[in-house]
């Protein structure tokens, strides 16, 4: 979905992303309950990621320069695995990793012994190798610190306070669909809410909602059919 094409109706495109919100070319705002499947779990411009990426661009992404980021990424993943009680975490690029169960940050389920993790680096699918390693290493550290932060607890409290759509169940920050669950994307978009583009994906509670966005979610759940 390059350039945000296909996420919004009527030929609209995502032109800007800030925090847990997306904006189209007309300036309409959408609360993001998809978050690129977890790649934007910490928002669309988290922490020091922008500075790290800018520094790597300045170094020359396409030049064969030595980089410390792969080793840093491996150490960061090991620290994150230790924090959540997992033996080892793998990224989607790691060969057979896609066959492993996925660990979801702030889920109420215990972490698998070996798990796939989607790190909160929104540009992960677009970057060159040194950019990718730098961004993922920083994202892993940001995620590890986030797990024990007041912001994470506030986000959990927010998720618990929101109604659960019919045919779904809540797990921490997530709403998990049953096999028969429907996904009313167009009705959601009409209310300024972005849901996953394909059925079967989890919904992810944003880090914050305005009063209006909360009312829109409650109204959507009220007309949501299981």
UniProtKB/TrEMBL annotation:
This is Aminotransferase class-III. InterPro entries: PyrdxlP-dep_Trfase, PyrdxlP-dep_Trfase_major, PyrdxlP-dep_Trfase_small. SUPFAM superfamilies: PLP-dependent transferases. It comes from Alkalispirochaeta americana. It comes from the Bacteria.
């Amino acid at each position: 979905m390059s350039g945000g094409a296909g996420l919004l109706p009527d030929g609209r495109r995502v032109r800007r992303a800030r925090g847990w919100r997306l904006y189209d070319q007309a300036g309409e705002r959408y609360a993001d309950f998809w978050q690129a499947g977890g790649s934007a779990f910490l928002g669309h411009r988290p922490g020091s990621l922008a500075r790290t990426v800018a520094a790597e661009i300045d170094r020359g992404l396409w030049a064969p320069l030595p980089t410390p980021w792969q080793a840093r990424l491996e150490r960061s993943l090991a620290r994150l695995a230790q924090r959540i009680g997992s033996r080892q975490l793998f990224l989607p690029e790691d060969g057979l990793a896609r066959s492993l169960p996925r660990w979801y940050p702030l889920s109420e389920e215990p972490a698998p012994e070996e798990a796939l993790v989607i790190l909160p680096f929104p540009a992960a699918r677009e970057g060159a190798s040194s950019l990718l390693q730098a961004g993922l290493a920083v994202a892993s550290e940001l995620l590890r610190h986030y797990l024990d932060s007041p912001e994470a607890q506030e986000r959990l409290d927010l998720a618990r306070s929101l109604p659960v759509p019919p045919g779904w169940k809540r797990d921490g920050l997530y709403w998990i669909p049953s096999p028969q669950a429907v996904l009313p994307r167009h009705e959601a978009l009409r209310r300024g809410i972005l849901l996953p583009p394909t059925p079967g994906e989890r919904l992810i509670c944003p880090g914050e909602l305005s009063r209006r966005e909360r009312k829109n979610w409650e109204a959507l759940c009220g007309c949501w059919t299981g």
